[in-house]
Write a structure and sequence with these properties.
InterPro entries: MoCofactor_Util/Proc, XdhC_CoxI
Strand content: 25-35%
Pfam families: XdhC_CoxI
Strand order of the largest sheet: 3-2-1-5-4
Order of helices and strands: HEEEHEE
Protein name: Sulfurylase small subunit, molybdopterin cytosine dinucleotide biosynthesis
Shape: globular
Length: 106
């Protein structure tokens, strides 16, 4: 597993290499969320990522939103959990809830 300091260092290295970068951070959890508050994921402008905010359940959706954040510069607060409305909606299979804040790294 990648530790938080590694993620910050990776983000800095990507910025120094001229890449656009977004950082996703778990800011709230409930129930059996697979990652604790403070877990992070760094995404570069090619969609490559390092770290984890859910252990694989929502990373694809977070990367998609991170790409938008790098385009428009607007941070986003994303919420994921189990839904009964649509079985195909992105969510956490473990039954918990998680909120992830995604921001561009300047």
């Amino acid at each position: 597993m990648t530790y938080q300091n590694d993620i910050v260092e990776q983000a800095a290295a990507l910025k120094a290499a001229g890449k656009r970068v977004a950082l996703a951070t778990v800011v709230s959890t409930w129930g059996s969320s697979p990652r604790p508050i403070g877990s992070q994921l760094v995404v570069d402008d090619t969609g490559a990522m390092q770290g984890s905010v859910s252990g694989g359940c929502i990373e694809g959706a977070v990367v998609h939103e991170a790409m938008k954040v790098m385009e428009d510069g607007e941070p986003r607060l994303l919420s994921f959990g189990v839904t009964d409305d649509q079985a195909w909606e992105v969510g956490l299979a473990c039954g918990g809830k998680v909120q992830v804040y995604v921001e561009a790294v300047e």
